[in-house]
Design goal:
This protein is an all-alpha fold and 130 residues long. 68% of the residues lie in helices and 0% in strands. The protein is built from six helices and no strands. The chain is elongated, with a radius of gyration of 28 Å.
Length: 130
């Protein structure tokens, strides 16, 4: 029985699919055509205000997350935000959301092209406050 299994396996392996190439990486393109037809219909039916609303929401969320990241560094992390008057639950909630969105803790996240000069920030802030 073992030899039969091995010979069946060998026969099935001799049918190398690489010899019978598909027309493209999409195969015959059936799934792609179905998706394109669905997407075209959905985009025609979706009102413009939906796209505008989603764009505004994404902008607000991005501002919120980057603002949290900046506040995290300006105030020196969790304890600093608490001293600045942030509610502990708010900090945890924003920390969780930040990590879900950016896949990193705010201490580890780096924004390309942005360098924080906290000493300059606080000196300017204190100068304007006095």
């Amino acid at each position: 029985m073992t030899s039969v299994f091995r010979s069946d396996y060998a026969v099935s392996m001799s049918d190398d699919l690489r010899k019978r190439r598909a027309e493209s990486v999409e195969g015959k393109g059936r799934a792609r055509r179905a998706w394109d037809a669905y997407a075209a219909a959905a985009n025609r039916l979706r009102p413009k205000w939906v796209d505008d609303s989603l764009r505004q929401l994404a902008l607000r969320w991005t501002e919120d997350m980057l603002g949290f990241w900046l506040a995290w560094h300006v105030y020196g992390g969790f304890e600093g935000l608490k001293r600045a008057g942030w509610n502990e639950r708010t900090i945890y909630r924003r920390l969780k959301r930040f990590r879900l969105v950016f896949k990193k803790h705010p201490d580890e996240f780096e924004l390309a092209g942005v360098t924080l000069d906290l000493e300059k920030f606080w000196n300017e802030h204190l100068r304007k406050a006095s």
